[in-house]
Amino acid sequence: MNKNVGQSVNRIDAQEKVTGKALFNADLKFPNLLHGKVLHSSIAHGKIKRLEVEKALKIPGVEAVVTGQELDYLGGEALKDMPFFAKDRVRYYGEPVAAVAAVDYETAVKAVDAIEVEYEELPAVYDLDEALKEDAPVLHPDLENYEHIKACQPKAGTNICNEFITEHGDVEKGFAEADYVYEDEFTTPACHHAPIEPFSAIAKIDEEGLIKVWTTNSSAHRLRKDLCDALRVSQNRLQIMVNYIGGSFGGKGGLKVEPLAIALAQKTKGKPVRIVYTREEVFTATLTRHATKIKIKTGVTRDGYLTAKSIELYYDTGAYSEKGPTVLIQGCEAAGGPYRIPNLHIKGNCVYTNKTIAGAYRGYGVIQPTWAFESQMDLLAERLGIDPLEMRLKNALEEGDPNCLGNPVYGVGLKECLEKVAREINWDQPAITDHPSIKRAKGIASTWEPTKTPSGSGVFIVLNFDGSVNISTSSSEVGQGSRTVLAQIAADALEVPLKLIDISFPDTHVTPFDASTTASRTTFHMGNAIIKAANDIVKEIREIAAEMLEVAPEDIILDNATAYAKSNPTQVLSYKEIIQAVYGAGGCILGKAFYYPAAKGAGIYGAPSVFWMFGAHAVDLEIDTETGQVKVNKVAAAHNVGKAINPLNVIQQIEGGVVQGMSNCLFEEIIRDDKGRVVNPNFHDYKIATAADIPEITPMIVEQADPKGPYGAKGVGEPAINPIGVAISNAVATATGVRLSHMLLKPEDLLSKLKEKL
């Protein structure tokens, strides 16, 4: 019987965080610490004609200056196209050009200001359509020479860094069988992750040449691989260490400030160098979500059943590919929606532009197609005269159905999610308001999300001499509560109290490989690894206890860190007594596991998703037709999590996803001038939802177990953001009769549409 799994226990790190004892990267202290500062490009595209650093080097207190001309490194996860610093040309406003290390921050700032750069500006391209034209400026003339993973298919001589095509069935036959065929186009904007903690890294190279990095990066082993590939050093010569992370949402992965700090540390003779980005640097020189354009052609019968879909997706990845190629793949795989679609054709392109790099963002490429396919589902329902909820229920995937890619899905629960949210907002009852300029309505939307596949997670578990437990894992705590969830899984798998378990922070020299803290994969992958490793320990405990009690191992019952025989429950041995009886001079019992659920040899994104996540959101809102202002009154959000390891944690994830997705749809806009410069790089001008904007939210947990998940569990963090924006848009369209195809419902745009309708 599970004592911890399924319980809303307090987070194991709660006290540390609320008392301020939790250490974040900027809190770490080192002797002889130098302060790093970066010079960023002041143009969006151009050749570096002159770069003079002599004046900076002469400033007292400056110990190192580094530029791209000195380095020959290219980084990137899927496509190695990004230099640590711009080498011969810059490709976006804010790109790192040089950096300094000095004895204090003020001196570092002064030194950066003393560096002189002369550019020869080149034509820049900021628009997806323009970037795809034959005569567009080509950002990467050497594209064909870049190393890349098998799943990435760059197109030499163009701005396409990856093209992805997938199909299932016969799409033309499906269109021929349809009573109606409709074509629609939708767009989504870039937006920023806006984490509270800025990006930072500390780098130190010791006397033996070991590169040590303390960082806010969410995926220690992936970062180590990417850095070692770029630096051309073996992985045992680079150590990545991660403490608490103050928010990521996908942004704190890949190469950010770490390579810049390492480049400086190579010149500081063993002194550590710390770079902490300012808020402006976070907004202009790190990462955004991909802006997209999506075209959908759908065949449907007159009674509302889908027969075929053809979808084109274009993702604006900015100046470098970063994770864009795999974001594209995951977005394309989800683009059909969580519905039975017998015939499907999808083509996607990941496109370079002279803008801030785009990459992983909560939802990992799926929030954009969710906006498109769920907007069109409402349009189809309207055109056919069918209720939007009924339209979704008619086509929703059920347990064991083949999805639109032809792969069976399990742990679905989508219909239950839809029915729950509909009941919660009284879908069948009219939305009423007494104010003449206020229109009120309800909207609904579904979503689904795959996970990164194949990927693996390793863990070491130590049952100590005193019966306590240490778990070594490289899963990062970015605020999602993973340390608590993993401890709960371990406590039940080992049959020990939760208070006896300690979970490590990632340290690539100590903690075993984990693919990444992304794709809502941690509970599923690391949870399975923990159970597998715990079984090693449980097996040994049973064998030792059986020998001590003179019974068979299968007769041993484990409970609350003790063992006893079924035949004699009064003779109880503690784990401590069992270990000390065998290893009297000191010892421990070890468990280890590596969980990798996929075909052997398959590369990254080279296998069907090992699990899919499903959910639905519904809203009740009002729109003022005189101002265009949208007020969300209530949100109902249901997600099938397989099994809620910690229900409170799941509720918090759903609530956070709702607020973030609502903020994306109603407030968030990155504004650039005609030279590609971000003009609102701060929390004053970049608007995000505040406490005053948050409506009543009713999170609902659906538990249709995934047969492969630990205790049936899977993730929820990523899909929780996906459907809320389009549910809001669908409600606005129902209320007013106007629909914006762009996923930012600005009041002025809504007013303009309303005036067009009059």
Outline the fold blueprint.
Blueprint: H1 14-18, E1 34-40, E2 46-52, H2 54-57, E3 62-67, E4 74-75, E5 82-83, E6 89-90, E7 96-102, H3 105-114, E8 116-121, H4 128-131, E9 160-168, H5 171-177, E10 180-188, E11 200-205, E12 211-215, H6 220-231, E13 238-242, H7 258-265, E14 273-276, H8 279-285, E15 291-300, E16 306-318, H9 324-334, E17 344-352, H10 367-384, H11 388-395, H12 414-424, E18 438-450, E19 457-463, E20 469-472, H13 482-494, E21 501-503, H14 522-549, E22 556-559, E23 562-565, E24 568-574, H15 575-582, E25 589-595, E26 612-624, E27 630-640, H16 647-666, E28 696-702, H17 724-736, H18 747-757
Helix pairs in contact: 10-17, 13-14, 14-15, 16-17
Level-2 CATH architecture of the largest domain = 2-Layer Sandwich
Major sheet: size, sense and barrel closure? Answer: 7 strands, mixed
- Helix count, per DSSP? 18
Structural class estimated from helices and strands: alpha+beta
Features:
alpha+beta; 7-stranded mixed beta sheet; Aldehyde Oxidoreductase, domain 4; 25% strand; 758 residues; 3 domains; Aldehyde Oxidoreductase, domain 3; 5-stranded mixed beta sheet
Written account of the structure:
It is globular and about 85 Å long. It has three domains: 31-124 and 196-247 and 252-285, Aldehyde Oxidoreductase, domain 3 (Alpha-Beta Complex), CATH 3.90.1170; 291-452 and 606-757, 2-Layer Sandwich (Aldehyde Oxidoreductase, domain 4); 455-595, Aldehyde oxidase/xanthine dehydrogenase, molybdopterin binding domain (Aldehyde Oxidoreductase, domain 4, 2-Layer Sandwich), CATH 3.30.365.10. It has 18 helices and 28 strands. With 758 residues, it is of the alpha+beta class.
